[in-house]
Design a protein that fits this description.
Low-confidence stretches: 1-8, 493-497
Strand content: under 5%
Distance between the termini: 22 Å
Structural class: mainly alpha
Strand order of the largest sheet: 1-2
Mean pLDDT: 85
Length: 503
């Protein structure tokens, strides 16, 4: 049950515990639970700060005029929200949008901070720290009496959420064999989809934002059990020289998978010696400037970064915009969560059947056209606009896993990590901008749909400048990528098949 890595060398983890066995499946199922709070904390703004109908307490004064000092809110659907409690209307309406931007900024910081911590202290411990911070700050946000403290706690809980995202994903990928990494990497999104769906039920049952915030934060307390349940990444342990601990983890996994353990200690020690010699011989890695130095890689960077930006902007923007459409907000959010599940499975099929580039183009076009139509179709029947928004969410549900896999294959080995990390940061920039774009519906209802619709279409056009990477031998260096592009362009004028096909 062994395979080889892309460099042609035998993978020590796959050799000892197999590509995918009972042990990896059990560990992955446990880790997947963390994706529920990820969805809850990223999307709770839909129910914690929905659009509010209000009038002026002084009936003779105009809304938002200097004479209107107090507002009376319609509480028929929600008993209390951030908007009603802190009077976030008129000149203070931007603060409600800023609350979600702060959340996404926290996730960005969490990705960076816990990404560093996971390299320094391992995968498991930073994941546990993030879960603890998520619980404490999330519950604290529900009971803060002042808005600035609420926003601070939301930032910390979002930073913890970003930490759980990066550490859990890395741990999963380092335990799974190469053959199954793409499939498991996409399936990793399924719990997020169920988290999105379950948020609608939480929102329906709990109509006060404080109790809702506490309810979605409390389950993180159970995840502290990760400290005793999850293994440390054997790859990380070997990388930092903790071979005895790595052997213990691998032997436990091999036993669970009914594989022999007799030679594991010797194999790990030999691997450690070879790795030590390799590290001493050294090699210069890439840096962020390499993403824009050469013409081909510069095109890759611009195109894939824009598509990541589209994913963050349009997914979270449309998800929030759904709360502003007609119909039942709880049903709308629930359906938008359900629709992502077939979207994720479609991505599994299309990535192999249609390829990476065509899958991304198709998903962008579907999302863009459907959202554009929201701005031009009539309000009656009332189900039409929400239905189009669900199709847009479906398209984005395909875009997210596709662009992640695509960007990982697009950049040469030398700059792959920095390329994926930099481009995925653009999704956070998009998600931070999303609430303000969705809020433009108060200026003109068609403005958000125009922006959310055009951006994916532009992303689809930019994909035409990218090569297909399905079943291709990926370049290891920037020079190889530039050479492949130049040769293909000279030979047939087509840059769409830029990498050598694997035979």
């Amino acid at each position: 049950m062994t395979t080889s890595t892309g460099s042609g060398k035998e993978d020590i983890v796959e050799k000892t515990i197999g590509v995918l066995g009972k042990w990896q499946i059990l560990v992955c199922l446990a880790i997947f639970l963390v994706k529920f709070p990820v969805a809850w904390h990223q999307l709770n703004i839909v129910f914690e700060a929905p659009p509010a109908q209000f009038t002026c307490a002084n009936i003779s004064a105009e809304l938002c005029s200097e004479e209107c000092h107090e507002h009376v809110f319609n509480r028929s659907i929600f008993a209390e929200t951030l908007i009603t409690q802190f009077d976030l209307v008129c000149g203070r309406a931007y603060i409600a949008h800023m609350a979600q931007t702060i959340t996404m900024l926290g996730i960005l910081f969490g990705n960076l901070v816990f990404g560093y911590l996971s390299d320094r202290f391992g995968r498991k411990n930073p994941l546990v720290w993030a879960v603890i911070l998520q619980f404490l700050s999330g519950v604290a946000a529900a009971f803060m009496p002042w808005l600035p403290l609420v926003l601070l706690m939301r930032f910390l809980s979002a930073m913890a959420t970003g930490g759980t995202m990066v550490t859990s994903f890395v741990l999963v990928m380092e335990l799974i064999g190469t053959k199954w990494r793409t499939t498991i990497g996409i399936m990793y999104q399924i719990p997020f989809d169920f988290g999105h769906l379950s948020l609608a039920f939480f929102g329906y049952l709990i109509r006060d934002w404080r109790y809702l915030q506490a309810a979605i934060s409390a389950p993180s307390l159970l995840l502290i059990a990760y400290y005793w349940v999850l293994p440390e990444s054997p790859r990380w342990l070997m990388t930092v020289g903790k071979t005895h601990q790595a052997v213990a983890v691998l032997e436990r996994g091999a036993k669970c998978n009914d594989l022999p353990i007799d030679s594991i200690k010797q194999d790990v020690e030999e691997f450690a010696q070879k790795s030590d010699l390799k590290n001493r011989s050294g090699g210069q890695g890439g840096n962020a400037l390499d993403l824009i130095k050469t013409p081909v890689i510069r095109v890759y960077t611009i195109c894939i970064c824009f598509n990541w930006l589209v994913c963050g902007l349009c997914f979270f923007g449309v998800a929030q915009y759904i709360g502003r459409l007609g119909g039942n907000i709880f049903i709308n959010v629930a359906i938008s969560g359900v629709i992502q599940i077939p979207g994720t499975f479609f991505a599994l099929w299309s990535l192999e059947a249609l390829g990476r580039r065509n899958s991304l183009i198709l998903a962008n076009v579907v999302a863009g056209v459907s959202v554009l139509l929201i701005g031009v179709v009539p309000d009656d029947p009332t189900w039409l606009k929400p239905s189009l928004s669900f199709v847009g969410i479906l398209g984005m549900a395909v875009c997210f896993p596709t662009v992640y896999i695509y960007s990982g294959e697009l950049f040469p080995t030398l700059i792959r990590n920095i390329g994926v990390g930099t481009s995925s940061m653009c999704a956070r920039i998009g998600s931070m901008t999303a609430p303000f774009v969705a809020g433009l519906s108060t200026v003109a209802p068609w403005v958000p749909t125009l922006i959310f619709g055009i951006m994916p279409l532009v992303g689809a056009v930019l994909c035409l400048k990218l090569p297909e990477t399905l079943n291709c031998k990926l370049p290891d260096t920037i020079e190889e990528a530039e050479k492949y592009a130049t040769n293909k362009t000279k030979s047939n004028g087509n840059s769409n098949e830029m990498f050598d096909r694997r035979e």
